[in-house]
Design brief:
The protein is an all-alpha fold. Helices cover 66% and strands 0% of the residues. It contains 8 helices and no strands. Helix 1 (11-29) runs antiparallel to helix 5 and helix 4 (94-111) runs antiparallel to helix 5. The chain is globular, with a radius of gyration of 17 Å. The protein starts with 10 loop residues before the first helix and ends with a helix. It comes from Brachypodium distachyon (Purple false brome).
Length: 191
């Protein structure tokens, strides 16, 4: 099973960006203007940031007690914390993403119109692609300027200092909203 957790970072944009584009085109073909699709996509990206925070805080850092829940947690996120610089464990496997797309699509479709669902979902999927690529870069890139330099310090602080704070990857917005910002003294310390 562990083999299924290994993914090259570039697989995420190669597989999912064409799907994102197709979804945007679908909403345009169903009568929306490009400007409307852009706004819906931006809203989808914004919603993704809340999903990213929520998954990382409440699912990836859940307390487990049984053998099977410990094993599932390790495969889902624990292996990433144990081996944070393993380049094959920094992005979510495409097969897992495809499976999760079904319930997320259904939630969006429940709240949105048939013509806006593709653009809203596409925005969320674009947010996911941005998240996974950002996550890889924060671990293996060498940013020299903010905001990337700050995000790298912020995320590595979560890995190596305070694992129960700093759950945002692409932004600290939801950490600020929900009170999980690490203390500023620690999170801005230079390497």
């Amino acid at each position: 099973m562990e083999l299924l957790t290994l993914t090259k970072w570039w697989a995420v944009p190669v597989i999912w960006l064409p799907v994102v584009c197709w979804l945007f085109v679908k909403s345009i073909q169903m009568g929306h203007t490009i400007q409307e699709v852009i706004l819906m996509a931006l809203f989808g990206v914004f919603v993704w940031t809340l999903i990213e925070y929520s998954l990382h805080r409440f699912l990836f850092h859940i307390e487990t007690k049984s053998y099977w829940s410990n094993t599932a947690h390790y495969l889902l996120h624990g292996c990433h914390h144990k081996h944070p610089m393993d380049s094959l464990r920094l992005v979510f496997p495409p097969a897992g993403t495809a499976i999760l797309c079904v319930p997320f699509w259904n939630v969006v479709a429940f709240f949105a119109t048939p013509s806006s669902t593709p653009a809203l979902f596409g925005g969320g999927l674009l947010g996911y692609v941005m998240y996974d690529c950002t996550h890889y870069y924060l671990h293996h890139g060498q940013p020299s300027k903010d905001p990337a330099k700050h995000l790298k310090r912020y995320h590595l602080n979560h890995h190596f200092r305070i694992q129960d704070k700093g759950f945002g990857i692409t932004s600290s917005l939801w950490d600020a909203v929900f009170g999980t910002l690490p203390s500023s003294k620690i999170s801005v310390k230079h390497n």
